[in-house]
Amino acid sequence: MNSPRTPWLLLIALLVFCFGLAANLQPRFQSLENSRRQSDNFFSLLLGDSSRVFANSFFVKADAYYHSGYYPTIFDNNSAFQTPHIAEDTGDVASHNQGEDEGFLGPPRDWIDAFGRHFIPNRHTHLDEGGPTDDLSTSKEVREILPWLKLSAELDPENIKTYIVTAFWLRTKLDKVPEAEQVLREGLRNNPNDPQLLFELGRIYFENYHDSTRARNIWEAALRSWARQEPGVPQSERLKLTNENFDSRFIFEQLQTNLALLEEKVGNLDAAIARWELAKLASPKPDDIQKHIDELKQKPLNR
Amino acid sequence: MNNIFAVAGIVIKELYRRKDFYVLFILTVVICLVMASVNVFNDNQIIRYLKELCLLLIWISSLVIAITTTARQIPAEREQRTLLPLLAKPLSRTQLIFGKFLGCWLACGLVLVCFYAFFGALAASREHAWPLLNYFQAAFLHWVMLGVVIAMTLLGSLVFAAPSSNSTICFVIVMAILCVGRYLDLVALSLAEPGRSIISGIYYTFPHLEVPFGMRNLIVHDWPLIEWKFVALDALYLLAYAAVFLVAACLVFRRKAVN
After folding, report:
1. Interface predicted TM-score (ipTM)
2. Do B185 and A110 touch (CB under 8 A)?
3. For residue A126, what is the nearest residue in chain B, using CA coordinates?
4. pLDDT, tens digit, for every residue of A140-162?
5. Most buried one in A41, A167, A215, B251, CB count within 10 A?
6. How many domains does chain B contain in total?
7. pTM for the full predicted model
């Protein structure tokens, strides 16, 4: 009964069974992947929703580092720091700051306060502008904000702002374009098709890699994604000048403006004008854009 | 004076026989080295987060060593029944208190030298700079501040029954001063009377230990040197408080039964 082929046949049967099982389970695992993404994050697992609070604290900590420690506490007047300056200076985030950022400490309250100010950072500086030494050659010191931004992104992977700010500083001041791209792709893995992340990724291809075709494709994908965000709402409604629409209008204008600039650069003036016309719909300064459109319309005549 | 130094020498020997310092130092080194091994966007020049963490651990370790070492000095002498024979020698109670204070303070000074040497080496490994004067200012004021904490704990060890309760109370007071001391006057303004007057009174009377603590930010973010006159003034201010606590401790100990 014990044929010499029996073990081989058993082995083949087992292999066939394993292959069949794997083929059966693979689609199920793939469908579960999205729901598992959150629990895969160690911090989310450990801290639950409170991880977002910590993430925000670390983002603010990065801003404090950007100011070399000169930063208001909960006891100080922080109206000039409502929007972290690391985000404000990227130009991609709407600012809610008001008042003086130079003197949130105000005049000394008493002699103890006046004396104590000699022992704390007491001047408003930005790391990319030289920090406390005012030495512009040290602008790469802005790298010091990165650990806190990285930690913040790990704690709250759904916060778009963290990826955008991290990528901006990596790309513009630290010449770390591949790392910036990696950050944005990580952001897109956690927030698929987000228009803001796609916009930033397009900027990398346009401004750093000088790849106009891929930049155009990414920005057009961002526009399609923007349109899909609120399917039932007409475009004119989303572009109305209201506070609720601010972010939506801002990203639409940025995308159309950058697409227009791209078309101008590659010489497609008609396409550029069409993009400027769309950008005008969302711009707070439509007259300036109209002036530029008029200039573009003159160009072919001048040639 | 010789008696004071003799007592101080015993306290210092006790510190290096105990494991507290070694444990805290190794823990600080290990935590800092683990954090230093984290890869942040392939940039090996990022250092400030490490400096901040290291300084925070140094502050915590030094406070733990200062408070726990000081809190057990007098109660341990009493428990081991060595206090009476000690005082039977030509050693006054005041000399004993001053000797214990000096021993703990010098021991903390030695601890700070080790910690700040490690901090300097850690910072230099990435910054390739030695701002020694800045480190000296920070370490010196840190040491003087520990003098106040040690004097306060010594007084507490004569007032409170057990070293554990004394340590806990001193920790709470010191942490409260370090965290909210600078803003207590603002807190007072938001209160109604008599709370406002009480909190304001506390603000103006407690030692502002948070002043040297705030210097961490200057060291972490490479701010320029503080003017030496301000460093000297702060040292004098803190030493005055240490003297007040020491005198109070001497007065309490003079009237305390030692058996």
Report:
1. 0.85
2. yes
3. B221
4. 788 899 999 999 998 888 889 99
5. A167
6. 1
7. 0.82
